[in-house]
């Protein structure tokens, strides 16, 4: 055939048009559910990372979460009507078709909820069915603190500069800090507020939104949102095609603390009331784009809503405030028996809630009997402004605002997604602009469009989603770069853009206090590059993280720096390859730092805080160090720390014998730092980084001093005439200094004293080494950095920035600065710092030492021996746990303790249940793993959730 015939057959080179996949019967059913009424979402992803789904039977609630499998470190996902997570991510509202509400809460485990409100207190009435719900945003911990957004990343030369913006957080807020309340709209026009009282028990208040006198007045869909004047705006659609907007004010019924006799707000019982006022009304069906649809075949379907969404006011980058917006969605499916191909489509309508000032004709002023009186101007009038509608040739399943409400995420039934500008509704994140990066989707990452779905939920980090497929199965989908290779270093524009996008997504998640675990498997695909290191360096730039503690003498600021935990958690997770596989060099480094930090925090809090004891006086506070169960729980951590110090010393003393030929650490000219760093990475030797990083050295110094204090208390306790051990703790209240310790407490401290006495390396010796290193490094920094004058603050800031840049690279396992060469020589030379440590150690003890408690030996023989032992480390008590046998709940008539396993790093601890207040308080500090990941509670007799 010639070209002309080809054009006639196939068009002007446009190719064949492949017909779209016909809609499934499940999609027809889903669209019917959406049209029948609002609040029918069967899958929801919490900000903590818990994925709740309603089983296909409608009678079972299922909880899933992404979790790291301990064997290979792979990350996988794991008649009720509606699910709705609170903004905090810890409360879940489970609503049935009759409008009854259960409220469950999560505390320390993603798959172990507690029922706080039972639906049995609600009536069973179809007219009470809930068609719209909304959790109030918890009040910011700092009053009027705005929400932060990091982005975009703008390319400047060879690096990125990160812009930031802010937006106000709108109320109303629950008066108790950290608490929220559920606001619901029912079919019969009732506005319900279900709220926790100050004692934690849920109560309810309600009012009538609309007077229902006929079936035309029944509400089918409702959407609720906060407004900038700390009120609620409620939009609802009726069966008579009306769209109404009501404003609601919540008065929590509390006296102001400044009034006479007023109690502090958290102590006052709440007695809320609701006031409502109608704002505007219109029809949600008028001005439909009838020219775009076939009215003959679609009239009935297009006269039914599937979604009604409320978008609160948002602050644009230029400072302009976008009005609150109502979005209505109408979707069309061809009749199931249609004998012709008719495409599906969705119409999206929008209305802005606007205000205009009312004016009074001057003639009315002359009607006043008092000519000199001044009338008050009339209040502003609200009205709905209809915006242009648009049509999409797909079935829209869900809409979710992201980026402080400036971008809308559209999810469709064919598994595709779109990002649209909230104001113009134009598609965004499609430019592939590597010089101005917002999101991974903008730079080539996409979701695979494989199979159709019925319901969708977006992750808290906005970088993955979960779907309910036609067969009822739940599938997790993550962004993937399918175009090719991203590159291997920052010289490649695509690689640098990916690093910047990951840094933005992670930092935004951290600022919003939501889970970011789904970013880890995305980054793990590029573990053969330096992406982890580059990501953390870039992330530290976005969050402006201080990691320089070379000048810091007190450990308080170091312990409170939670971003250190964030960075090491990411690095540890990406370096984990399975329980019985060697960790990567940076992963091993961070894994040890996280455990060390956790022990420092636990011992510090146990020594300095008072808790209510178990004695006859419940208000009397005692030190946790006066409780034998607490001391027994800390004993494993004491031994682990002392073993860590001995292992560090042993590793450094034997390092010279493992060096390549020709490398000499006792001479400045005998080695190059890049070659040394390459050797340390190849052999997985992290000891030198642990000592030369100021943050890690700070943790080591802090734990040395706390263990010295604990050893002093232990020796007083086991001395017959010692008196109360708690007298040595500064914040202990109610301790009797003349009271002798109980036999149980004496035995617990005897265990501690035995561990500190039989240690290979004395605490004082390692503390002396750390102090000498700190002094040497401070001297080096003072030498290589310019000296500032007394009034020259700019030089001081420049020096702080330079030191921080050095420390960031060392903390993340990067190369040492060239100026550190003399320090390394001072450490390893014949009469250097390590030589003094060697003199204080018995060589035989060090040679035959068993460091299995640390799990740092990762050669094949050590890993095989650990696997064959059938034991797992309890990361809280630092003791070995026998692996439970499958299906065995009882051993010798006793219940087998259940495990908790971290969803992020796969660490294990026993799910401890105790009535002792001091120990219970200490365990509460472990409500999240030492890596800051959330726990999964493992079933009895199982090892994996």
TrEMBL record:
Record-annotated Mediator complex subunit Med16 N-terminal domain positions: 130-449
Family, similarity comment: Belongs to the Mediator complex subunit 16 family.
Top-level taxon of origin: Eukaryota
Domain Mediator complex subunit 16 C-terminal: 835-936
GO BP, one annotated term: positive regulation of DNA-templated transcription
Main location, first listed in the record: nucleus
Bias (Acidic residues): 1-10
Organism: Glarea lozoyensis (strain ATCC 20868 / MF5171)
Function: Component of the Mediator complex, a coactivator involved in the regulated transcription of nearly all RNA polymerase II-dependent genes. Mediator functions as a bridge to convey information from gene-specific regulatory proteins to the basal RNA polymerase II transcription machinery. Mediator is recruited to promoters by direct interactions with regulatory proteins and serves as a scaffold for the assembly of a functional preinitiation complex with RNA polymerase II and the general transcription factors.
Record's keyword terms, sorted: Activator, Nucleus, Transcription, Transcription regulation
Name of this protein: Mediator of RNA polymerase II transcription subunit 16
GO cellular component: mediator complex
UniProt-annotated stretches for the region Disordered: 1-23, 721-743
PANTHER family attached to this UniProt entry: MEDIATOR OF RNA POLYMERASE II TRANSCRIPTION SUBUNIT 16, THYROID HORMONE RECEPTOR-ASSOCIATED PROTEIN-RELATED
Compositional bias (Polar residues): 721-739
Annotated gene: MED16
Subunit structure as annotated in this protein's UniProt entry: Component of the Mediator complex.
InterPro entries in the record: Mediator_Med16 (IPR048338), Mediator_Med16_C (IPR048339), Mediator_Med16_N (IPR021665)
Xref: Pfam families: Med16_C, Med16_N
Subcellular location, record wording: Nucleus
